Amino acid sequence: MPNLLRKPGPAPHLQAIDPESVHEDCPNWNYVAFDVLKLEPGQALDRETGDWEHLLVIITGKMKASVDGEVLGTLGGRMDIHSREKGWSLYVPNGATFSIQAETELEVALCAAPGMGNHPVRVIEPDDAPMEARGTGANTRYVNAIMMEEKEWADSLLVTEVWTPNGNWSSYPSHKHDHDDFPKETYLEETYYHKINPPTGFSVQRVYNDDRSLDETMAVGDGDVVLVPEGYHPAVALYGHDLYYLNVMAGPMRKWRFQNDPDHDWVFQRDLKA
């Protein structure tokens, strides 16, 4: 059985996911890399992006940043990820070097995918638009589409964050994006980075395909990452525990086209009529 659940390691590198590190469980994984760093005030990181464009999503805290020697100043300010507050991000193209230094306790996600050098450095500040509510009833969740396809700021990366209230379902009705069949469906690998409030709880996520050759159900703890190499991937927040997750997707085409599980599509059709 593949190991799709990745537990955090010790600080500063809580997570470090790339095609090489997940090859044993996801041999066809080629498009998504995902790291999480937890830095104390004054700690710094310098990194070359190489062939991978990066989006640095500040989960919590503040940091100084520079790219190729250009000082960008202080970024960030969200101190509680469960406040349902939009945060700051920094896009860095492939073939660049960036430096960050924590000004406060800092948790930052490094989302990466193949780059082609078509986009400049971009600081993404939180806007004043209301959070997008999706679903109804116990399927309600709140979405901040940081860098989805309508924002033509990247070559490959699609990144969004989602808040799911306690007891609610998310990424539901169950859907998949594992076939290169545009415009009906696009092939996109995906990671889910879960944060639980309070952190002693858990969420549950299932990853399964049509013939059930892949069928994994996981209790997901605070700071865990779930890999979605293929298949449907619904999640649910434990009663009494709110769920935040950060999604990173990438594939051969920067388009998000998905298919619902036929067994669950009636839920989507019913909600459309509501």
- Rough outline: globular
**Total beta strands:** 23
- Intertermini distance: 40 Å
Helix content estimate: under 10%
Strand content: 35-45%
From the alpha carbons, calculate the radius of gyration and give it in angstroms.
18 Å
Give the domain tally: 1
Write up this protein.
The protein contains one helix and 23 strands. It has one helix spanning 265-273, and strands at 5-6, 13-17, 33-39, 44-48, 52-60, 62-67, 70-76, 89-92, 97-102, 106-114, 122-124, 132-134, 141-147, 158-164, 169-170, 175-176, 189-197, 203-208, 215-220, 225-228, 235-237, 242-250, 259-260. It has one domain (9-255): Jelly Rolls (Sandwich). Helices cover 3% and strands 45% of the residues. It has 274 residues and is mainly beta. A hairpin with a 2-residue loop joins β6 and β7.
Topology of this protein?
Layout: E1 5-6, E2 13-17, E3 33-39, E4 44-48, E5 52-60, E6 62-67, E7 70-76, E8 89-92, E9 97-102, E10 106-114, E11 122-124, E12 132-134, E13 141-147, E14 158-164, E15 169-170, E16 175-176, E17 189-197, E18 203-208, E19 215-220, E20 225-228, E21 235-237, E22 242-250, E23 259-260, H1 265-273
Antiparallel strand pairs: 1-20, 2-3, 3-10, 4-9, 5-8, 5-10, 6-7, 6-9, 8-11, 12-13, 13-14, 14-22, 15-21, 16-23, 17-20, 17-22, 18-19, 18-21
Notable characteristics:
single chain; 274 residues; 6-stranded antiparallel beta sheet; 1 helix; 23 strands; 45% strand
Task: Report a brief summary of the structure.
The chain is mainly β and 274 residues long. The chain is built from 1 helix and 23 strands.
